[in-house]
Amino acid sequence: MTEKEFNHPAFIATLLTGTFSMSISQSALSTAYPAFMRSFHLGAGTVSWLTTGFMLVMSLMIPVSPWLLENIRFDRLFQLVVATFGIGTLLCVWAPSFSVLMVGRLLEALAVGIIFPSFQTVLLTITPETERGHIMGIAGLVMGSALAVGPIISGVLLTWFHWQALFILFLIISVVVLSVSFATIKPVMTLHKSQFDWLSVILAASFPALLYVLTSLTKGVTLALGIISIIAIVAAVWFVYRQLHQDKPLLQLRVFATKAFTQAVFLTGISYIALIVTTIVMPLFFQTRLHVSPLVSGLSLVPAAVGLSLLNPYTGKMLDKFGPRRVVLIGMGLIVGGFTLLAILAPYLNLLGAILLAMVTEAGNAFVMMPAVTTGANALPENLLADGTAVTTTMRQLLGSAGVVLATFSLQQWQSLTQNQALSFQLTFAIFAVIGLIGLILGLRLPLKAKA
């Protein structure tokens, strides 16, 4: 189907609105934890599974998304995903017990795990290569905004209403998007029917298992985690072997044979590490070093998130005009510079200074994340775009989780060794400045022009 055969702006608007509402559901829920704890008389550890379980199911569905795009008409797939999210949200609204709430949440995760890589693949497929930077920049604006406004929307609703109001909002948006999608979403993807590989899906569960291990390591090493790690690593190796020896693999891992794509994957991962570490370590810094309240701490990251969102469309245009190397080097320079200044100035910063440096590191992400994703996609033939996007999304999550573990471990260990809180933050920021330098070196190896 060509661009003339459907309303291109309406298609993109519907696609991004649906993805935006689902993305909000990821970041908005943590604000409601106290309300869930009161309603169901549960501890924080149990309630946190609303996020942990969501993340694990979402990670499992990401490698399946290329097969779905190649075997189900995209309009039907999109409507199925939105309907699944809506049903899950409806269960959350009704939820007479935490178990029902959890089931609803996992259905939401199922939908998000499919749509998150798929929407990027579709946008890349329907957009000419010379304009991909711009359109992916808009996508970055939408996704960044969702992460930024999620906690704000949640906080406002919970101030005035019961926690069900949050899910009612998601449900209303889902119903509207689903209704509109019958007129705007078209089957833009070429189908290549193949048999569903159930064994590969089972083996792909190794990725959420590894993700679970990485996130759980922040609480300490246990025998159970060790056993899960061994099983997950064996399954992951088997998964890779199987994909490389199948005529029609569930996930085409040969995308890593393309040098520019592999570089882009690791640049995206390093950028995501910088983003997620900033959003986790800076609130700790605000509260423990600057002694502000949790509310002020959360609001202090809003300027950085807003700046990241607003920069995305401009960095996309810059990618189309100047090519990946220049754009990514600017971003990595900001990330390295931000973390380096944090490492040097941590003992002396006031709240305003800390907010500004958080804005610098997150601004760097705008110059790296979507431009690197687009550069990696441009290096692949069109028939591998879905696989490339799924691989990039999976690697980004794994590397991001590893970054969280490293940040948490670093803060704990340096604090224990030095008994100096400011120094522990300085050394942790220095570690991530070095990781940023690795990204800077990778950026130097990118092609000058937009096409790899």
Explain this structure to me?
With 452 residues, the protein is mostly helical. The protein has three domains: 1-182, Growth Hormone, Chain: A; 196-247; 252-452, Growth Hormone, Chain: A (Up-down Bundle). The protein is 79% helix and 0% strand. The protein is built from 19 helices and no strands. The protein has helices spanning 8-28, 33-40, 44-47, 49-61, 65-71, 74-94, 98-126, 132-160, 164-184, 198-204, 206-216, 223-244, 259-288, 294-299, 302-322, 324-345, 351-378, 385-418, 421-444. α1 (8-28) runs antiparallel to α9, α4 (49-61) packs antiparallel against α11 (206-216) and α6 packs antiparallel against α9. Keywords: Membrane, Transmembrane, Transmembrane helix, Transport. InterPro entries: MFS (IPR011701), MFS_dom (IPR020846), MFS_trans_sf (IPR036259). One of its GO terms (cellular component) is plasma membrane. It is a multi-pass membrane protein. One of its GO terms (molecular function) is transmembrane transporter activity.
Q: Structural class, from helix and strand content?
A: mainly alpha
> How many beta strands in the DSSP annotation?
0
Helix content: over 70%
Which residue ranges are poorly predicted, with pLDDT under 50 across at least 5 consecutive positions? none
| Tally of helical segments | 19
**Strand content range:** under 5%
CATH architecture of the largest domain: Up-down Bundle
- Output the CATH class name of the largest domain: Mainly Alpha
At CATH level 3, the topology of the largest domain is Growth Hormone, Chain: A
Output mean pLDDT: 86
What count of domains describes the coordinates? 3
Query: Roughly how many Å is the radius of gyration?
Result: 21 Å
Order of helices and strands: HHHHHHHHHHHHHHHHHHH
Dominant shape: globular
Q: Span between N and C termini? A: 26 Å
CATH superfamily of the largest domain: MFS general substrate transporter like domains
Pfam families: MFS_1 (PF07690)
Keywords: Membrane, Transmembrane, Transmembrane helix, Transport
Membrane topology: Multi-pass membrane protein
Domain Major facilitator superfamily (MFS) profile: 11-451
